[in-house]
Amino acid sequence: MTVTSSIKSPEALTLAITAEFPAAVERVWQIWEDPRQLERWWGPPTWPATFETYDFHPGGQADYYMTGPDGTKARGWWQFTSVDGPTRLALNDGFADDDGKRVEEMGQALMEVSIVDGGGRTAMTITTTFENTEQMQKMLEMGMEEGMKEAMGQIDGILAK
What we know:
The chain is of the alpha+beta class and about 160 residues long. The protein contains 5 helices and 8 strands, in the order ββααββββββααα. The chain has helices at about 25-35, 35-40, 135-140, 145-150, 155-160; strands at about 5-10, 15-20, 50-55, 60-65, 75-85, 90-95, 110-115, 120-130. The chain has an 8-stranded antiparallel beta sheet with strand order 1-2-8-7-6-5-4-3. The longest helix is centred in the N-terminal third of the chain and has 9 residues, at about 25-35. Pfam families: AHSA1. Belongs to the AHA1 family.
């Protein structure tokens, strides 16, 4: 498993998950800039993702859904706020309904990605900042931490190809 740490901070309203990979920074960046590679790891193995739109630049949006084992679809959206390849990425993250419209009552979270050269290995940290304690608790109860760790655990296989 590539995940090296998972740190929750209720005070800062953050969840930070770090993974290390035996690949160059530029190669790790490719799993973000190429939606076909992103689909191979975003979401737990039993909930693979499909990106319907992917406009990877500041101000651009991505729309996706994850398909569960029983065919259930969970939809989401991203709004990219910063794309500074190959080391930094930031986006707003939220849920969508079956029609792809934003579910405002679920709020949104800020997701920041940092990719750092570690001298032969690359560390990638995904830090999610929640709007409030209630949102953070709800997301953790829905299995966000475990799901992100399972998702990031699939990246080694993609980088090996």
